[in-house]
Amino acid sequence: MLLWSVGRDASAEGKVLQAMQARQRSDAAEMWRLAREGLAMAPEHPRLLLAAGEAAVTEGNQASTGAARFAWYIRAADHYDAAARARPFLAQALRESALARDWSGRPAEALPVHLRAIARDPDQARGYEYLGLHFWRLGRSEEAERLLRLARRFRGSMLAGEFLERIKQDRLQGVPRGETF
Q1: pTM for this structure?
Q2: Residue 175: what pLDDT?
């Protein structure tokens, strides 16, 4: 059974590996192309869906106009959602989908996805960090600060310290809440 599964997914896994190598080279366009090629062979392959989502976010970050950026973020959310459907307990897919929804200007859609991601993996800092950033973007810095402080208590906290400092600086400078995100 295992050999059959590995053999069946070998081509798709090869595309995942190539896409990750493109990521290492910071070549988002190539990563996107490889992920899409892999998805043509295996449309529900979770690692390819994650790679496509990541490439779409990177392409969105590099887009020159707001409309193009939002379109890429929507594509990213769609790929992350598909990865979560393919692997229902993949909290990473839910976290990234929620963040992409926030970036594409859809915070009302993002909140329940943030909460599902935390429910799937309550001991992972990244879910609390992303939810904290969600609230900060909405101008709710008190909730953001509480969640970011909580995130620092868990493994994998990478953003909390930086954004807690930004919240502190915003307060000192009288900047409206969430305006520097």
Answers
A1: 0.87
A2: 77
